[in-house]
């Protein structure tokens, strides 16, 4: 499982850089603008310069409306600014067809510019609270649009976690559908270290985290702490080893 960490500023990205050996993807976002809030192009560029060149840089395009042209242009902006993972939160899409239309525009805009870019279609585990597309529709939206990964986060950051809204067996079904479509499955949403056993067991490819590696566990007022990133990674590694041993023992 890959670890994606979301700093909101160049200063925090520098703290991520101190923990670079413990993380896999640096994900630029602006939490003030929402769960997948977009940051400024110059912040993406500065963070690209601040983190080791071999660390992939991701950027969120926002909790986007159903406006395919607007979103495609914004996604290209993130790619031009140096992001190679482009994450789109389909906040304003109420049907799978709307999600596919938005993501097709993103895929074309981004991959025309940079064919090796990695496009992530994200929905929300708490979609029922905001009236957007069903989270289990995301793998099919990603497949039909030519995206590379399907993701879920939580839209409302009120302390509730991914598993509060979608229990592990539903997340497992999400991962199964993503893998069946040959996509990566990414999960986030106030994930805590205590969720890692289940996330590992169900085959999650990427776990996205912010709050759990911030001082005081607070994604808004706390800052990302390199030692918390290291501790989170150690837990991930422990669960990966235990899971591998259990699979081997089961024959
Ligand atoms: O993409 C990952 C998100 O930034 C997760 O943030 P969170 O762990 O604070 O919910």
List keywords for this structure.
251 residues, alpha/beta, TIM Barrel, eight-stranded parallel beta barrel
Quick one: overall form?
A: globular
Number of helices: 10
Tally of extended strands?
Answer: 8
Ligand catalogue: glyceraldehyde-3-phosphate
H and E string: EHEHEHEHEHHEHHEHEH
Measured distance between first and last alpha carbons: 22 Å
Structure overview:
The active site is at 29 (schiff-base intermediate with substrate), 87 (proton acceptor). Its EC number is 4.2.3.153. GO terms for molecular function: lyase activity. Keywords: Lyase, Schiff base. Catalyzes the formation of 4-(hydroxymethyl)-2-furancarboxaldehyde phosphate (4-HFC-P) from two molecules of glyceraldehyde-3-P (GA-3-P). The model has no long low-confidence stretch (mean pLDDT 97). This protein has helices spanning 10-18, 41-50, 68-80, 96-113, 127-130, 138-145, 162-165, 168-180, 196-201, 226-249, and strands spanning 2-5, 25-28, 57-63, 85-89, 118-124, 149-153, 184-188, 206-209. Strands 1-2-3-4-5-6-7-8 form an eight-stranded parallel barrel, surrounded by five helices. The chain has a single domain, classed as TIM Barrel. Helix content is 43%, strand content 16%. By secondary structure, the chain is α/β, with parallel strands linked by helices. Helix 3 (68-80) links the parallel strand 3 (57-63) and strand 4. 49% of the residues are buried. It is built from ten helices and eight strands. It is globular, with a radius of gyration of 17 Å. The structure holds glyceraldehyde-3-phosphate (G3H). Residues 4, 6, 27, 153, 157, 188-191, 208-212, 219 line the site of glyceraldehyde-3-phosphate.
């Amino acid at each position: 499982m890959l670890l994606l960490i979301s700093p909101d500023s160049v200063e925090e990205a520098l703290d991520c850089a101190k923990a670079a050996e413990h993380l896999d993807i640096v994900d630029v976002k602006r939490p003030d603008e929402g769960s997948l809030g977009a940051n400024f192009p110059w912040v993406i560029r500065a963070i690209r310069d601040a983190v080791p060149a071999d660390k992939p840089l991701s950027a969120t395009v926002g909790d986007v409306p159903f406006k395919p042209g607007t979103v495609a242009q914004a996604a290209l902006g993130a790619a031009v600014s140096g992001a190679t993972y482009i994450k789109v939160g389909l906040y304003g899409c109420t049907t799978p067809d709307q999600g596919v239309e938005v993501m097709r525009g993103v895929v074309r805009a981004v991959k025309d510019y940079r064919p090796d870019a990695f496009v992530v279609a994200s929905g929300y585990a708490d979609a029922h609270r905001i009236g957007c597309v069903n989270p289990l529709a995301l793998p099919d939206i990603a497949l039909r649009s030519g995206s590379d990964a399907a993701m879920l986060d939580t839209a409302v950051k009120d302390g509730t976690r991914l598993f509060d809204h979608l229990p592990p067996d539903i997340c497992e079904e999400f991962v199964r559908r993503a893998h069946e479509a040959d996509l990566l499955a990414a999960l986030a949403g106030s994930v805590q270290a205590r969720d890692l056993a289940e996330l590992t067991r169900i085959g999650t490819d990427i776990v996205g985290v912010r709050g759990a590696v911030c001082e005081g566990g607070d994604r808004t007022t706390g800052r990302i702490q390199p030692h918390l990133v290291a501790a989170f990674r150690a837990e991930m590694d422990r669960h990966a080893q235990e899971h591998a041993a259990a699979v081997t023992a089961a024959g």
